[in-house]
Amino acid sequence: MSGYIRGFRLIVYDPDASFNPRLAGDYAPRHASTGRGAAPAHSPSTAGGVWNGATLTPLERPAGFERRAAFTPEEAAEFKRTTSDRIRSRLPSDADRLTQVDIDETYVETEVFTLDRLRTSLIVDPPHGRLPDLLPEARARVTARPKRSFEDPETFGLAERCLLGNFGAGGSLASPPLMPSEVIPGYYEIVQTDAHVMIFTEWIHDARIVRMNSTHLSPAIRQWLGDSIGFYEGSTLVVDTTNFRGDTHNLNSGERLHVVERFARVDPKTMRYRVTVTDPDTWATPWTAEWLFKAIDAKIYGIECHEGNYAIEHFLRGARFEERERSRQR
Predict the structure, then answer these.
(1) Would you say 250 and 172 are in contact if contact means Cβ atoms under 8 Å apart?
(2) How far apart are CA 241 and CA 274, in angstroms?
(3) C-beta of residue 223 within 8 angstroms of C-beta of residue 235
(4) Which pTM value belongs to this model?
(5) Which of 25, 59, 93, 247 is deepest in the core (most CB within 10 A)?
(6) Sign of CA pseudo-dihedral 123, 250, 205, 56
(7) pLDDT tens digits for 278-306?
(8) Is the Cβ–Cβ distance between 212 and 39 less than 8 Å?
């Protein structure tokens, strides 16, 4: 796929309303049933607008920077220059490296990818900037997954199948925790009414509905994007998400994944996205990451991934062709 324009949409009740810090304190009257803040009718949204959440800052500190919280400008330039080589080295096979050509500046909107304040990782807790070690049961769960095979299309990745945009280490642009891709920009737009917030992610055209001041669905109901409820802490929009499907496995997580996101406006053009992740079946301790979203004046376009996804069919057709050729040569 070429010409990546990807996004995430947050829609607000009044998209033309400007943010007024003086009014932020009026954002959080106590909610009678939950004791949490609820946004009054027709108030401007802290998180509302169209945002660019793209960053080249890695989730975890790379090798050689374990004790370094920031790159030097020269190191940052080299890290950015070698991005496509790093992506290519992580692809699962030589065939993928040969055919996955759309990962360099010819196709990628490299101008929107920057290192967030020259930081070496998005993770801020643990302080060493790395994910907690996977628990033994999590490693066993990952090992037991069916391996990618041309014998079964369901062994391919969720992104390849256009089900969920899980990239790289398995992070998703849509299913929380929202993990940036190094290839596809994370454009976001948030739309809000008194009862709901909609978080629309252009890749892969996913809309997550956050029920404000509500309670979670029954644990028996599992969804690709989880079940999200929201409330306000002062002027910060807090979104609490549980009830994930086991096969979402965002960053190798399991069904007990619990994600708390905080969308906090820093200034009229900047929003801090901070996310805390807990999963007792995957990591021994919770972890937290954060980075900045930048407001943009742009439209977000639909990504018809499934409708134009001929790759899986061609993978299988090619494998069957090779099998017939090998059979003829015997």
Answers:
(1) yes
(2) 14
(3) no
(4) 0.83
(5) 59
(6) positive
(7) 999 999 999 999 999 999 998 887 777 87
(8) yes
- Helices 73-81 and 83-90 cross at an angle (nearest 10°) of 50
Residue 41 lies in a domain: yes
Q: How far apart are CA 138 and CA 237, in angstroms?
A: 31
CA distance 205 to 174: 9
Rounded CA-CA distance 328/316 in Å is: 19
Distance CA(239)–CA(275), nearest Å, equals 9
Q: Do 56 and 168 touch, CB atoms closer than 8 A?
A: no
Q: Is residue 3 part of a domain?
A: no
| Nearest C-alpha neighbor of 276 from the set 60, 69, 125, 88 | 125
Q: Are 122 and 116 a contacting pair, CB within 8 Å? A: yes
107 band by pLDDT with thresholds 50, 70 and 90: confident
Q: Which domain holds residue 213?
A: 8-329
pLDDT digits (tens, 9 = 90+) for 65-104: 999 999 999 999 999 999 999 988 888 888 888 877 788 8
Tokens 């978080």 correspond to: 199
Place of tokens 């190094």: 182
**Residue 195 per-residue DSSP state:** S
Number of structural domains the chain divides into: 1
Q: How many residues does the chain have?
A: 330
Within 10 angstroms of residue 166's Cβ, the number of other Cβ atoms is 23
- Is 142 a member of any domain? yes
Q: How far apart are CA 54 and CA 142, in angstroms?
A: 28
Q: How far apart are CA 165 and CA 6, in angstroms?
A: 11
Q: For the residues of 198-252, what is the DSSP string, one character each?
A: EEEETTTTEEEEEEET--PPPTT--BTT-EEEEEEETTEEEEEEE-B-GGG-GGG
What single-letter amino acid sits at 255? E
Cα R_g (the chain), whole angstroms: 21
